Batch of 3 targets.
Target 1
Amino acid sequence: MSSQKAQQTQLYGTNSTRAHLRDSLTSGQVPVAVYGLGKMGLPLAAAIAETTGNVTGVDIDESVVDRISAGNCPVDHEPGLAALTERLVTDDALAATTDGVGAASGASVHVLIVPTEVREDGTVDLSALESAVETLAAGLEPGDLVLVESTVPPQTTAEVIEPTLAARSGLDPDEFGLAFCPERTSSGRALRDIRGAYPKVVGGRDEESRAAATLVYETLTSNDVVPVSDATTAECVKVFEGVYRDVNIALANELATLADELAVDVREAIDVANGQPYCDIHTPGPGVGGHCIPYYPYFLITECSTTTPMLQTARTVNDEMAAYTVEKLESELDAVGVGLDDARVALLGVTYRPGIDETRASPARRIDSALAERGTTTFAVDPVCSDMSPFAAITVNIEELPELDVDAVVLVTAHDEFAAFDWRTVPELLVVDTQNALDLEETDHRVYTLGRGRE
């Protein structure tokens, strides 16, 4: 063990009492390194630093590290994070570096929260995580504790992370602690989620790892810490949560497509059905976006040899809702004598979620592409999105709508600004509302609501 770490308190492989270990952690005697300072990583590093006063964040992006080192926050639209980051850096509770090996050498607890990706063919790309694990391993020493928060395919901790740590560090696996403790946070509420919005799941490689990880998270969260049997079970918990939502949304979306044939308000039927305690159907919409739900099913679909037809079907159903939205737009335009190739259409909302500046896998991207292929003149309105470059549509502000002479608007993402807009300023308009979010009763618009039909 290095002389630097000899002066530190180790949480794994110790006979110290839990009270002593907890006091050591909260007093800064247990240095923590957090690998990955992105949208989830920086809030986590800040929350740990707020509790322990001794965190070094690691990121390969020099601009991110420079901004944090200056007390600035590179993550936007995250309530409370900018002020907390500035305070922690000023108080020397949080530092940032691109020197991952150096950070690893100085830390006793290591937290991995780097992204995992899904390739176009559906296979999972763990290269960023594997690189971070190798960096961490270069500074790993006996008694260190490694906590993995990155979402991964089940068995990754056991089959990829543990062997790599052991091989690269030269340590036997029983010389360091290892646990998978999945992040359960959402953009726009990360600090609140980390501090205790949901129970924290902990799955250790062994009983001692589980106990050490539980101790760490008991200091961070006001909610329960839920130990599970092992790391693979904890990995499954995280993936299953996302898969459940994807499948449930696909069910709601498929039911929504029956509204015209059955001449029924499917949304009303869903709401009333959910009054029964054994029913919890989600809300239909134009698809599923973001960096989680559209991708997690592939952690099982492509990584397991057992076939998962339900998961594959759900992915297909949700991906095809954008085309279904365009199909309904076209039929409604035809009904008023306007061809899709001659139409002027405004897309309202291009981010995947209201209030969140993120367009990854947003249904608006598929809708925008489909309209571009059909020759539609398309405008995009989004009060939150800072980067409209992925879209072919012409970017406009909502205040410009009355001057654009559009034939139709398609509400894709229900930002508050759209509900507050005075829709009487754009008369005789076709509105396709995929979110049931607009109150247009006092207008003369022709309205088609996904799951409700024409109003």
Target 2
Amino acid sequence: MTNSFTCRNFIDGKWWDSTGKTTLESRNPAYKSEIVATFPRSTIADVNQAVESARQAYKTWRKVPAPARAEYVFLVGELLIQHKEELAQLISREMGKPLTEARGDIQEGIDCAFYSAGEGRRLFGQTTPSEMPNKFAMTVRTPIGVCALITPWNFPIAIPCWKAMPALVCGNTIILKPAEDTPACATKLIEIFAAAGFPPGVVNLLHGVGEEVGKALVEHADVNLVSFTGSSATGSQVGEICGRTHKRVCLEMGGKNAQIVMEDADLELALDGAIWGAFGTTGQRCTATSRLILHRDIKAQFTAMLWERTKKLRLGAGYDADTEIAAIINERQLQRVSEYMDIAREEGANILIGGEVAVEGALKEGYFFKPTILDNVTPQMRVAREEIFGPVVALMEVSSFEDAIAILNDTNYGLSSSIYTRDINRAFAAMRDIEAGITYINGPTIGAEVHLPFGGVKQTGNGHREAGSAAIDTFTEWKTVYVDFSGSLQRAQIDNRD
């Protein structure tokens, strides 16, 4: 057992104790008696201090040339490389995911650092002809201001990096509010940002409860932008507040993602995709494959293949080398997944394998749930429509490509999607007709890359995208500039035609 450590807030370039006296704990989900870290239950006074720090720093940070701002972010990437294994071990202890996935979490942060740093020399505007003589017209990007970044626990390094790095390169200052389950990961990340030498107040960290600290940041008059990743229910509340207070808001929320397997698919390849998509990160991804839409001609064969592979998956602590399925993040989420099994039974679904908490041997010391396959699932069942966020996949049978697309689209969400087929015509029709922000052809629903936009439609998002060059649009405002060098008054939008 490793000793726990104490997390503090980071404000104005210094580590601070909260003005409040209450502390909270994060625990190892594979060994729930182990306290990984204690962290402050921050107060409104802490929020005000952080916002004021970020507001003051913004006045000078926005004037630093973008290529110079990018050099700080590039250095963060280099420091992440140096601390990669240390951070991976911490992620595996505090969040629970297997070490191979934890290393990927950090690599995503590294990739994002180098990509975002490159954008420091590519914050392009546009030039365009004016309709009038001796007049120049162009657009430029300007920063927005103080950005509150509210992040989840499932990618405790990657997602904060997705948000922070482009925001900083664009000239904004940031306040990171991490999830209560992963304060140690956030603390170590901000230690790296601090080591990169950002000016005081440019990067800030606030620990605490989402309903308190997160809500106060969203409502604060001096916060200009909120970037939130989490549930659709919470995201709708964030969006409502930001709409009422005229804040820029970027929402990345839930998913009920589906993988279609057609009768002409490479079934072994589709099986690999289904196992990874459904059970990678213990199903705790917004892009996880929670529905498998199977053509009736291959359903029986594919189901048998899926069952055979699923029963061999090894459960255990993320830091154990043999682990394939790690722990659920906490007791509350474990109970939520269990309750959906009762719902599945009540609705008439058949649990082919799993469907229960794992308590064998050392597993009883943590929050483990057996990988689960639900069969005979129909589109109107709750287990086909609601995000479970655990190692559970629902099988749904179709008789045609058209039915498969219709069922895939029959959801309130629209994040990621997948189809396995050898038919190029079907593949292109799927790319056109699937209602989702991300579509994979012959690949699983998980595996986004940092140089491409990430986000979804419907209740998954509000039109903004993270990652890629699209993130620059999230964290900048457009300014249109006219330069009239005619020496006389020229009146646009007046009928000057003879």
Target 3
Amino acid sequence: MKNYSKNLECNLPIGTRIVGKWHTKSYRIVKKLGSGATGNVYLADSAHGQVALKIGVDNMSITSEVNVLKHFLKVQGQVLGPSLLDVDDLVTNSGTIPFYVMEYLKGIELIPFIRNKGEEWIGILMVQLLGDLDRLHRAGWVFGDLKPENLLVVGPPSRTRWLDVGGTTLLGRSIKEYTEFYDRGYWGLGTRKAEPSYDLFAVAMIMINCSYPSRFEKKGEKAIVQLKQAVEEKDELRLYQNVILKALTGKYDEAQSMRQELVEAISNRSSYKPRHTPKTRKAHKQKKEKKKSSYAVEIFLITSFILLAFVLYLFGQLM
């Protein structure tokens, strides 16, 4: 078996073949799927089809993630994360590097899915996500690094599945991995203590991110004012405004409460009337003026046609 150096920092070239030290299962690297604080994730070919393989130099972190995936199997209800298939070590010139193999989930990332299918899917998919988070929290864990990149929409029927569980943390401990935009600590709206409200803040930020795919940075000290304004400027977010703001300010203690109020907001969609912001008001005014102008032209043409017909009628009578 070929050896590899830890100095590669788990960056495996396409075509690399690795064999586990203990289970002797073989995997061939197809492409890199992503990377995080604890290692890199690759798409790999195996004897049983394509799989996702994560490799990292931190044995404790890898072991922790494996334990999380094992625990997911015991959580009742929908399957939360990918199924764990194998855990082994890769022999290198400097020792061994731990890795584990997961089910490869085929689907579309959250934001591209919503941009393709329509913004009404924001609420639907977040209701599903909150149901999964509720089961996770009741089992004693917080997802931690919750963001669109760690969510995949699979199906049919369409539903969200989790990808990287590297940030999953036991309740009561400090969040070990996070991304600034979805982190309430970055926005100055809470601590980084692992509790349900930390994940729920991230859900609200994911909803905002769906309408602002490029994201944006914090401006000034009053972050909640900035975020509230961002919500108010998008009609697709205004429908969920109360739910989003409550999550941003830590008003929910459990995912189920947020989920219920989100379901109620969705059910009120038929009676929802978009409120025009300064930006949308200008566009609405231009559209109204254009429609008015078009209507005037139409009236003029109809009137001219009637007058012409009347003139021709009189001319016919005189002849």
